[in-house]
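Data deposition worksheet. Section B asks for the primary sequence of the deposited chain exactly as it was used as input, without tags or linkers unless they were present during the calculation. Section C holds the resulting structure in token form. Section D is free text for depositor observations; keep each observation to a single sentence. Incomplete worksheets are returned to the depositor.
Section A, Depositor: J.P.
Section B:
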Amino acid sequence: MARISRRPIKEEILQKVFALFFEIVGKKTNLRDFKSVISEILSPVERIMIAKRVAIVYLLLKGIDQRSISNVLKVSNATVSKFAVLMEKSTGVVPSFNKILTNDKILDFLDQMFDALFPPGTYGTNWKAAWERRKRISLKKTYGM
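Section C:
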């Protein structure tokens, strides 16, 4: 857990700090710039912690089982449950992820449609590729990634 000072910052200064943080991190147009800024600001442990938290919220919204999430991301069941409770009252994170989930649902539908049209075992289908596609779809349904 990250340690912060016991001495509180004034609210107006805290607002300015958050605005500065958004200017530095939030307004990046490509992934390379974002990664370079984040890698200079955050330690490796902090980057992993934040990435896991984002992944937990994403997988919970996809409807993946909490135990599967904790096994895949190597976090405790309590951590996943905490974010499940926090998401019920969320006004910022959940709407942002719903846009991403809409695109993912379309891609998943197309993947399943392609699998239904060209299943393993039909004439003219590459069996190895078809079985790998079916396995990937199954893992995506189970673990969300």
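Section D:
The chain has one domain: 42-143.
The radius of gyration is 20 Å.
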